[in-house]
């Protein structure tokens, strides 16, 4: 453990912020800090040390590391590692148990649904109809309101009040309903007694709160952390503002920065150095972490890479200068049954080649509900590898595998799906070892020896250096992409604009 890591893991500050750069070992640090807090600083506390992260995969990773390092009892009650969604559920259940909030049916489901996708009565295409969502009145009664907001009621959603009420009283709900009601309850100006009860719950159950990847917090998450601070609960947050990528899902790095400044967190800088094995990457990572100008290189002829990263899946499917197998499909691809069959076919190829699960498999499986996926895809996979088989042969085989009628217009693949299949045929038939293709979002938290990044804004000229702005989301995406490599990263210019209609241009300075 480095001096910076030791200082961060054993800090006794009431409020501490570890500014952890890429390659600094954030998850390692969080597990070390958890053990120190559990067995040293708060060893006699009746309440528990609680580690909070975002994705369930990240929660499992952190909990497993803590168990291996500190033993299974380290995360036994009242100590725990959970997601923010789980913490939201716990707080809302507390309000219900205290009789402050009346929930339809009287209680919350122990394991809320991720969405209403498979629930009868919910629709993914509400059209112009108003959608149902939950509201909270001053007396604590949860009732059904109407909205057209995708944030308050993301699709699939209910458009019939009775169907929605029936699902709720049966004990079903999604994380979105929990967030909506808890956010209302935490508004101290409208519901002061609910906010007081939440602080009481946190003070009685948490002796120290550890937040991993803090800059992915949304407004509700920061409100929960603020409530813990107001309840005099010590808080440690670990994160890097440059690696906040989820504003499209509601994350608010500006709100996190405000939380840190207004509460005067002790800042501990921990620049990354453990990931990088070459002077080239150490120099680049240091410049990026400090916000200094940096230069990048184009790939040399014949240079090989372990992974190809891009801002979106479309750039990976369009790239034909290198052999890359994308582990996901473009967001503009339709989600019909025939396209879902293609997604499952791609998933089998990616699993066989790289041993990982490709993006979009869950949704495609829900659409088609395959009975025996391996046997259903046996013929389409054989045709995909057979150089004599045509594109139409493969589409016909996919339709037959999942019982889709041929010569029916709605089951005919669209132009984009056809282009993707042709690209997949080319990669499978002509390359034994293609590079893995991922979006920057998919690559966050991962690392490889050699990385190629597809980008249209970075300068690769030896006469210019690039300067990024942490307040620009597209610049943070560039930062994450450039810091995934242990040995080398190269940038291949793409013509298409990866940032949409109003790109955030990267500033170039002469060197």
Q: How is the topology of this model organized?
A:
Layout: H1 3-9, E1 15-20, H2 26-41, E2 48-53, H3 56-70, E3 80-83, H4 84-97, E4 122-123, E5 131-136, E6 142-147, E7 157-158, H5 161-169, H6 175-185, H7 192-205, E8 206-211, H8 219-230, E9 235-239, H9 253-262, E10 266-270, H10 279-289, E11 307-310, H11 313-318, E12 324-326, H12 337-354, H13 361-368, H14 373-376, H15 378-385, H16 391-401, H17 415-430, E13 435-439, H18 440-443, E14 448-455, E15 464-467, H19 473-482, E16 485-493, E17 507-510
Parallel strand pairs: 1-9, 1-10, 2-3, 2-8, 8-9, 11-13, 11-14, 12-13, 14-16
Antiparallel strand pairs: 4-7, 5-6, 15-17
Keywords: ATP-binding, Helicase, Hydrolase, Isomerase, Nucleotide-binding
InterPro entries: DNA_helicase_UvrD-like_C, DNA_helicase_UvrD/REP, P-loop_NTPase, UvrD-like_ATP-bd
Domain UvrD-like helicase ATP-binding: 1-277
Question: Can you offer a commentary on this structure?
Answer:
It is a single chain. The longest helix has 18 residues, at 337-354. Helix 1 (3-9) crosses helix 2, helix 12 (337-354) packs across helix 13 and helix 12 (337-354) packs parallel to helix 17 (415-430). The chain has a six-stranded parallel β-sheet, sandwiched between helices. The chain has a five-stranded parallel β-sheet with strand order 12-13-11-14-16. Strands 4-7 form a two-stranded antiparallel sheet. The protein has four domains: 3-87 and 189-270, Rossmann fold, CATH 3.40.50.300; 101-187, no CATH class; 279-300 and 438-510, no CATH class; 327-432. It is globular, with a radius of gyration of 25 Å. It contains 19 helices and 17 strands. It has 511 residues and is α/β, with parallel strands linked by helices. Keywords: ATP-binding, Helicase, Hydrolase, Isomerase, Nucleotide-binding. Pfam families: AAA_19 (PF13245), UvrD_C (PF13361). ATP binds at residues 20-27.
